[in-house]
Amino acid sequence: MLGGYMGKILRVNLSTGEIKTEPIDRGLAEEFVGARGYAAKIIFDEVDPKADPLGPDNKLIFATGPLTLTPAPTGGRFNVVTKSPLNNTIAASNSGGFWGAELKKTGYDMVIVEGKAEKPCYLWITGDNVEIKDASQLTGQDTAVTTDRIIDELGGDDKIKVACIGPAGENLVNIACVINDRERAAGRTGVGAVMGSKNLKAIAVKGNQTASIANRDKFREVLKNAMEKIKTNAITSQGLPTYGTMVLNNIINEHGLYPTNNFQRGTFDSVENVCGEKLVETYLVRNKACFGCPIGCGRVTKLPNGESGEGPEYETSWAFSANCGIDDLVAVIQANYICNKMGLDTISTGVTISAAMELYEKGYLDKNDFIGQPEPRFGSVEALLHYARAIALREGLGDALADGSYEFTKRYGHPEFSMSVKKQELPAYDPRGAQGHALQYATSNRGGCHVRGYLISPEILGAPEKIDPYVTEGKAQWVKTLQDLTALIDSEGLCLFTSFALGLEDYTALLSAVTGIEYTPEMALTAGERVWNLEKIWNLKAGYSKADDTLPTRFLEVPLPDGASRGQVVRIDVTLPEYYEIRGWNTEGIPTESKLEELSL
Questions:
Q1: Is residue 561 included in any domain, yes or no?
Q2: Which of 110, 123, 107, 104 is nearest to 82 (CA)?
Q3: For residues 85 and 586, what is the distance between their CA atoms, to the nearest angstrom?
Q4: pTM, rounded to two decimals
Q5: Based on the number of CB atoms within 10 Å of its own CB, is 54 exposed (0-12), middle (13-18) or buried (19 or more)?
Q6: Is 184 in the same domain as 40?
Q7: How does pLDDT run across 162-186, given as a tens digit for each residue?
Q8: Do the beta carbons of residue 333 and residue 367 sit within 8 Å?
Q9: Coil, helix or strand for 148?
């Protein structure tokens, strides 16, 4: 078998109780690499794009990559791949921590979950021993309690790793996530709701196998080179370890693309109260790293009331502060803790709440809509903390908010207040301040997303080189390249943050040394392009079209009113046609026959 792969896929049918294994397909491994790519191919082949995402015909895949469990830097990632209940796209949600590496230790590269159990259950995987166990006693429990109780039930071994859902997933909230290792999240696209729809509360894993490496001498050489780059890069050796991802709060605010009050402004006057520097001064206990990570951007925090946990990350801190008009860091941390325990995507939760706040501000909500609940107004800590929990429990106005900002604002006749792409809420960068990032938002295969091609890196941070964020020229090529590269990184099983220091040659060298397949950089990037096009085709079959490769009208028609990016609007009319052409798609955004042949699709 190829190096890097355990060689087996575990398939569990919850409807019938059938458990079986099947071998990894070498050809698919070479073409789609693993994790996001290989799992997307399985969804493409086995799930009808028109299937109900919360029905038994949808499948849920937990997939590692060939570099997961290896000493490759950040080699602990895994992807949860399914059809999204939020927007019907082919969804891949990425997470770190230790669960992915532990799954691979059990001898499986991925777990495919099919059907629906009659009653709540969880999976217990220890190599050849796979059990479907009763989880009725865990119904309604949060992710922390669920994790602790499962570990206790299985003998109390702290080597057991648990991925689970909270009440949000059980209640089929469209923005529910999967939480692993108590604090890490496969956060986006509503994968937690799919897990809940299958009556699957958790997957617990424990193994003792090790990763295989085809060419150990070569691997040691390329690993040393990669680690040296990470240790000498300013972002990966200084910025992220010192301030975590919240190093970005002040930087993005200074550039005038820090969304405030549901993207109505590009700067937040009180950013200094909720930034990474403030967190270090106040509530940071220590850094925390995921499996095999030399960066250590995770934040362990503790509040004056004694409550502790992990986070918040940059996107979370923004979603609960500036975008909701709140400058209370304690409240931001508390909202993050709530979402982790309830199993909610913090980005979508914050942006959905801010959409309700703008509707209220503009007079489209009245008190009859939230009787007995706080006024959803900008600046209200009470509203933020209340609705974060109410969404997970589908209580009161939270029941409508649980469907995401697009469906919520549409219900009130104003979908233009949903700051989303393909119904998924946008993260913490106003696209008017970065033309390349705007194009990436519009064309993202899973909807509004910053980690499918992080154009903020070159446009704002200057890595790998600084490019003007306001020009449109050349941005289409940048977007395509970074989207394909990100698909490769996700499929390998590495963290995107390594890309601040590493380039295509590094990812190719690591992949080749581990698998024994002699990839060239062109072959490796083509693998990423193949994944991207496969996802695109599936989305087209699900009903998406060129009309969906766009942004809310606010970004196209209303100039940013303040900050360094004042006066800017998005020029998607210029960048999108060029993007289609560079991708080898026709003018309607459909991959041509020649492109599909080129990619062996």
A1: yes
A2: 110
A3: 28
A4: 0.98
A5: middle
A6: yes
A7: 999 999 999 999 999 999 999 999 9
A8: no
A9: helix
Amino acid of residue 433: G
Structure tokens belonging to residue 471: 């020009």
H runs (alpha helix) in 493-552: 504-515, 521-541
Question: Are 401 and 544 within one domain?
Answer: no
Its sign, for the CA torsion 586, 588, 589, 591, is: negative
| CATH number of domain containing 26 | 3.60.9.10
Same domain, 160 and 291: no
- Kindly state whether residue 544 falls inside one of the protein's structural domains: yes
Assess whether 524 and 382 both reside in one domain.
no
Using CB atoms within 10 Å of the CB of residue 232, give its burial: 0 to 12 exposed, 13 to 18 middle, 19+ buried: exposed
Taking the C-alpha atoms of residue 539 and residue 526, their distance in angstroms, rounded to an integer, is: 20
Residue 222 is assigned to a structural domain of this protein = no
Residue 191 falls in which region: left (phi positive, over 0), alpha (psi -120 to 50) or beta: alpha
For the segment 177-235, what is each residue's pLDDT rounded down to a tens digit? 999 999 999 999 999 999 999 999 999 999 999 999 999 999 999 999 999 999 999 99
Helix (H, G, I), strand (E, B) or coil at 287: strand
pLDDT over 90 (residue 367): no
**Count of domains for the chain:** 3
Measured between alpha carbons, how far is 366 from 386 in angstroms, rounded to an integer?
17
Name the β-bridge partners of 348. none
On the question of pLDDT at 261 being above 70, the answer is: yes
Same domain, 193 and 312: no
The answer to whether residue 147 sits within a structural domain is: yes
| C-alpha to C-alpha distance for 239 and 246, rounded to whole angstroms | 9
From 7, 33, 251, select the one nearest 110 (Cα to Cα): 7
The terminus-to-terminus CA distance of the chain in angstroms comes to: 24
The answer to whether 383 and 377 have CB atoms below 8 angstroms apart is: yes
Rounded Cα gap, residues 487 and 451, in angstroms: 10
What tokens appear for 540 in the block?
């087209």
Stretch 411-438: mean pLDDT, rounded? 98
Q: Taking Cα atoms as reference points, which of 279, 367, 291, 372 lies closest to residue 320?
A: 279
Rounded Cα gap, residues 412 and 376, in angstroms: 15
468, 484 contact by CB (below 8 A) = no
CA 54 to CA 171: how far, in whole Å? Answer: 11
Per-residue pLDDT of 487-524, as tens digits, reads 999 999 999 999 999 999 999 999 999 999 999 999 99
pLDDT at 1 over 90: no
Q: What is the pLDDT of residues 97-110, one digit of tens each?
A: 999 999 999 999 99
Q: Which token pair is 134?
A: 């009763």
Distance of alpha carbon 179 from the chain centroid: 12
DSSP per residue over 417-477, as a string? G--EETTEEP-SS-GGG-HHHHHHHHH-TTSS-STTS-THIIIII-SSS---TT--TTHHH
pLDDT digits (tens, 9 = 90+) for 441-467: 999 999 999 999 999 999 999 999 999
Per the structure, the complete domain to which residue 385 belongs is given by 240-418
Task: Specify the CATH number for the domain of residue 316.
Answer: 1.10.569.10
Residues 324 and 375 in one domain: yes
